Amino acid sequence: MHARTKTRLASTLFLATLAFGAPAFASDNPAMDASVARVQREWERIKYQTKDPAAQHEQIRVLAHDAAASAAKFPGRAEPLIWEGIAQSEQAAMSSGLSALNDAKAARKSFEQAYQIDRKALEGGAATSLGTLYYRVPGFPIGFGDKDKARRYLAEGVALSPDGMDSNYFYGDFLITQGEYAAAAKVLQRALASPPHPDRPLWDAGRRAEIKALLAKANAKLRRS
Does the domain at residues 3-159 carry the CATH identifier 2.60.40? Predict the structure, then answer.
């Protein structure tokens, strides 16, 4: 890879973090639920309470290792694979250059495996996560980003979780990147209307703040048009 391409990769990969957080759930495997919940709670703490970037990066690295162990402990289950992918994508967002791209590819693999196992798991979490990767990672020749795939997966995520906060948030964010501000505003309003999640207060409050900021951006664009 040429030096100029490496520089572009370092500066463009993951302009914003993935930070997908599927809602709490209960499956037929309490041990797996507990393992996934531990990863989920740690992700929330790192994402919304750890302020130092260096500390956040190191803690996400550790979490990615723990999430991989959780997925290995429960083979054939989509839920821990989705959370492994979330940790890997967060790691990509905090890295640069080829390290970021390798982490993004690892996340894509985890999400694809989860999608093949059970695309409905965690309210369509694999589809939403794949869609988010495809629009936030640069396209060829730098990365594997693909806006058409992003739209397809994100729309599927909303179809699987029509009232979900994350499914609508990420679809709305994607629509903003495409200049579709009216559609984005509608989707983001639906995200805000999602019922509160008292079992996950950090994620609920943090995500709602992010949605409100995006909605304000979409409305500002509409006022200027």
Answer: no
